[in-house]
Amino acid sequence: MGELFARAISSEPDGLTQRVDTGGHAFTCDEPLDLGGNDQGPTPHELLVASLAACSAITLRAYAARKGIELGDVRVETRLHRDPRGDAYRTTVEIEGELEPQVVAVLQRVAAKCPVKTALATARVAPALIRVGGRASEIVGCHTSDLSVEGLSPAAGRGVAWSR
């Protein structure tokens, strides 16, 4: 299957705006003003929700094309419900036109196998590798709420500190 990559570059010391490069495309990712960002682009969670919606639509279109199923306009909406006990995603698909009930049932199973959804359900998260001043250390977890790095002095020009 290969490996995908994305690089986020933050060069604003007091902002959260990120320039993101995926190798073939570049875009901006940010947080809203009330969370300390500049609201210059979608948030990481908005990108995740958009990825799920787009992947479902692409998966349905590709399957329908392979099987010779004519689809009208396909609209996919994915919503994220944030909850401390675990986030919940809900996807709704609307297809214009008429389809036989058995075709709808097959398309529902196909949409459930969207590769992004499968990746989220089966992902293994490797420890984050943080490089500061040429030195590297591994920190288990990949979400900032999991990180608490203390003891490096920003005044010394080599410090990083996260807390939440």
Condensed summary:
With 164 residues, the chain is an alpha+beta fold. The protein has three domains: 1-41; 44-122, K homology (KH) domain (GMP Synthetase, Chain A, domain 3), CATH 3.30.300; 124-164, no CATH class. The protein contains three helices and seven strands.
List the defining traits of the structure above.
164 residues, alpha+beta, 3 domains, 23% strand
* Cα distance spanning the termini: 36 Å
Mean pLDDT: 83
Radius of gyration: 20 Å
Poorly predicted runs:
142-164
Largest sheet: 3 strands, antiparallel
Order of helices and strands: EEEHEEHHEE
Q: What name does the CATH topology of the largest domain carry? A: GMP Synthetase, Chain A, domain 3
Strand content: 15-25%
Shape: elongated
CATH architectural category of the largest domain: 2-Layer Sandwich
Give the strand line-up of the largest sheet. 1-2-3
Percent range of helical residues? 25-40%
**Counting H and I runs of at least 4 residues, what is the number of helices?**
3
**Superfamily at the CATH H level of the largest domain?**
K homology (KH) domain
Number of domains: 3
Textual characterization of the structure:
The chain is of the alpha+beta class. The chain has 3 helices and 7 strands. It has helices at 44-67, 101-112, 115-122; strands at residues 7-9, 18-21, 26-29, 74-81, 88-95, 128-132, 135-139. The chain has a 3-stranded antiparallel β-sheet, with no helix packed on it. It has a two-stranded antiparallel sheet with strand order 4-5. A two-stranded antiparallel ribbon has the order 6-7. Helix 1 (44-67) packs across helix 2. The model is unreliable at 142-164 (pLDDT under 50).
